[in-house]
Design a protein that fits this description.
The structure is a homodimer. Chain A is mainly alpha-helical. Helices cover 71% and strands 3% of the residues of chain A. Chain A has helices spanning 11-24, 37-44, 48-60, 81-98, 103-124, 127-140, 147-163, 168-180, 182-185, 192-211, 214-247; strands at residues 64-67, 73-76. In chain A, helix 6 (127-140) packs antiparallel against helix 7 and helix 6 packs antiparallel against helix 10 (192-211). Chains A and B meet through helix 1, helix 3, helix 4, helix 5 and helix 8 of A and helix 1, helix 3, helix 4, helix 5 and helix 8 of B. The first copy, chain A, binds a DNA duplex through residues 10-12, 36-38, 46-50, 52-53, 66-74.
Chain lengths: 248, 248
DNA sequence: GACATTAAAATGCCAGACAATTAAAAAGTG
DNA sequence: CACTTTTTAATTGTCTGGCATTTTAATGTC
């Protein structure tokens, strides 16, 4: 573990990189205690604040946790799927909003990934997953539901579908794709008629999942993708028309 | 933007959360300059080092960048796909290694996602993507190639397949799944015979991509998944047997 | 032995300073 | 005036030293 004081990079960034490398390579293992801040400062020939900045960088990625007190210190953290979920959702959301990713591209990616889960979910889903899907479909039919709540329920429905595949890695990967779409979906106004159509498609998907019919799940997902994209186009077009009317 | 000095959480973590929230919500936009460290310290009623720790946390997530000098400061960073790739690969790798994710589960997720790209890639891949695939197949046939180099080439091959779908969001999502598998794959010893089998399957996949035959791409990917998992099982079984022999 | 007290070790936080970098403003120069 | 050089100011990067807080372990007391 070496750092280069003449590099243009921050010392704290270099130190963080060095420690991260040790963790990724497995030379620092889960729950192992790092040297104290003072010892690290001594080792790298830097001051304690610099070491602290480095440790905060690692903490921001959930790679370490710190504990105060006599036997405290920084410990290599077991990266949990839940922690990774949250980071992924944030990252994916920002990627979409900051890079002018079109609704179509995001939607295509999301449904492509979701279809990948279809066969596994049809085969392995538990009664719980199916119950969640049915419950969300019911919620989506409630009158007086706001558009935001409708979208949130939509996310829960699809996450149940994904989780039904019983593969944590898959669920983790999909969390970003599904949840990151929510801000984009929130821009759509769901009329009573479009909600009805979506609920009908959701019901068909749940039915196909229940029947264990992977092909039907996939084709219904396809139908849902098509409908969603058409809906978005309609919204965008009508908004553009209105904007033009105003300028005219 | 408020923080609670009596909270159990670190002040620097609270400040980072507050600023992150502003970015995610779009109230701080790309390339916008944050107040100087001194101003932030003043605003939050904390010291400069504490503010700096908060900013380093955000920098670790590529949410801000800093610039020294007169007109310097911290700026909201446009999160690039490349930056997100790297973070995702690190995170996914650690998730697998720290959570005792089996080869089977990881492999299943990876190929499920990759099959999701198949139809898009068959339809849209450019000559470049195809050329990369062919080149990597050729490299994989070179004698004297180390197992690590073989795996690295394998990753490049599959990334070309994924990138062929022409959907950046999909590529980003898949980067983690494909590259995070590499450390696991590296544990496998590839005999001359198994390399030959994999190269044959790669060739079939490339052929199917060239022909634009999505179904064939999917079924060949299936075959590759099955072969890879069988291979891993053989390796694990033979290693277990050897371990047993030693203890006996 | 049970409980209270004290000591020690570690992180959390702060104040103040100086160094390094950068761009803009000011000054100098032909 | 145009161009170059110098100065200055703003900002981040880093260091020193210290105090506060938290937690555990050791010590003492009954």
């Amino acid at each position: 573990m070496k750092i280069d004081p003449t590099s243009s990079k921050d010392l704290s960034a270099q130190i963080a990189d060095a420690i991260r490398e040790e963790i990724v390579a497995g030379r620092l293992i889960v729950d192992q205690r790092l040297p104290s801040e003072a010892e690290l400062a001594d080792y790298f020939n830097v001051s304690r604040p610099t070491v602290r900045e480095a440790l905060k960088r690692l903490a921001a990625q959930s790679l370490i946790r710190t504990q105060r007190g006599a036997t405290g210190g920084a410990f290599v953290n077991r990266l949990r799927f839940e922690d990774a979920y949250d980071q992924q959702v944030t990252t994916a959301s920002l990627l979409l909003s900051m890079n002018a990713v079109s609704f179509d591209v995001a939607c295509e990616a999301r449904y492509a990934l979701e279809r990948a889960c279809a066969p596994l979910s049809a085969a392995r889903r538990t009664p719980d997953h199916l119950a969640t899907m049915r419950a969300e479909i019911h919620r989506q039919g409630q009158p007086g539901l706001t558009d935001e709540a409708f979208c949130a329920s939509d996310v829960t429905f699809h996450r149940a579908l994904v989780d039904g595949a019983g593969n944590k890695v898959l669920s983790y990967q999909l969390a970003g794709a599904v949840e990151a779409m929510q801000p984009l979906m929130n821009m759509i106004t769901f009329t009573a008629r479009s909600r009805e159509a979506i609920i009908a498609l959701h019901t068909k998907i749940a039915d196909a999942i229940e029947a264990g019919d992977a092909d039907r799940v996939e084709s219904e997902l396809n139908a849902l993708e098509t409908y969603t994209r058409d809906l978005a186009h309609t919204v965008v077009t009508s908004r553009d028309t209105k904007a033009k009317d105003k300028t005219a």
